[in-house]
Amino acid sequence: MKKVLIANRGEIALRVMRACREMGLATVAVYSDVDRAALHVAYADEAYRLGPGPATESYLRGDLILEVAQQAGADAIHPGYGFLSENAEFAEACETAGITFIGPPASAMRALGSKTKARQAADAAQMPRVPGSVKGLATIEEALSVAAQIGYPVMLKAAAGGGGKGMRAVLAATEMAAAYSTASSEAERSFGSGEVYLEKLIERPRHIEIQVIADTHGSCLYLGERECSVQRRHQKVIEEAPSAVVGEDLRRRMGEAAVRLALSAGYVNAGTVEFLVDSDQNFYFLEMNTRLQVEHPVTELITGLDLVAMQLRVAMGEPLGVRQQEVYLRGHAIECRIYAEDPENNFMPSPGKITRLLQPGGPGIREDCGVYEGWTVPLDYDPMLSKLITYGATREEAITRMVRALDEYVVGGIRTNIGLFRRILLDEEFRSAQIDTGYLDRLLAHSATEDESTVPEDVIALAAAILTQRQKTSSLSPVPVAVSRWRSAGRTEGLRA
After folding, report:
1. Can you list the alpha helix ranges (DSSP code H) found in 30-170?
2. Is 433 in the same domain as 324?
3. pLDDT tens for residues 440-453?
């Protein structure tokens, strides 16, 4: 393997390119028209245009990507995450073209990528899973029948994808018809398949996932767990490793179950097995993501392993070179996904030009970033700007560092969710790890109630009077008062970001 085409964009494309550069591999970038000036294009050894902005005309065009790979002489393709990363047909097409796909084989993708097939594989591997159907539901009547057997509340889910698309909670039989129709339609639009399945809705679970990686020599490792319970509309917002509630015994049992599932499907390369964990620490298989995860940096920081480099070596046919007993977890890491979105306006995307960018640094800070000052954030794709990750000897230290890093982080010209992260990290429930998958929705609902409260007119008048007096005093002062640039930024632009 000498030259790798990265079939993605933004921070993950840069992340893979950096690993390639360290290993002496040449890199090829692909880009759409709106990404012509993107960082990943400038960083790569070569770059090729795919087409117009919409992903369906660029990053989702597997045929064009293969043409570029052959034109550039690339002998391998890394799909990153999203786009074609879990597309078995694309992995198969790479193999047919004689190009190494840096990910699992198409057969393993088909066995585990579909949520219903993965549930069947979990049963075969004797893994505990959430009660429900093991195949797609053909009719509303069938959904009602399964729900009656396992009891309400239940959850309808898209069989072909994730990310919260095609998911609907159903609390009673009277809600089934509308929920089934909506979930199926959304699944069809998002994944090209309207197939849905049904499972028991576990109340207030924690979302815990296990990172696995397997080589072509029959070895498979689990690399600890990640806590991903802070979610909004089933989309992860903050991830951390390890989980504050997972002990050695639960970690071992979940890890061994994840490895058992991967090996049973002939899995190779990196993947993630996701579980729900209830208040009694019972765990249930949820699904498997047959690719690298967005949150992989927190695992890298606590294990000291470079997951992308391991992916590349596995794709070259090398053994993992690490035994399970040599995997140690040290310290604690937290990741915040920095998005160009407006939390105060129903999290609407906030595309536009980044007019100012001050990024955090210092001990224990890592940022995987795909933007720069002067870059225009397009509306065509997921609005993630970067991933901010902090590491500390303890969870408390990692949280403290994250708060400090967020105070230093300034993004001008667009709205971001930086202020939301400050609110979460200073919240007592989060700091004490009293979280579940409904935590953030409750926090936001509480904040909305507080925002709707009316401020008395006399308080507004008093505040205006104080501000006027301060402005007069400031204009009379002959000596300027020195103010920390970082503190100033964090309290003004940073809060509006």
Report:
1. 39-43, 62-72, 88-96, 106-113, 115-124, 140-150
2. yes
3. 999 999 876 554 44
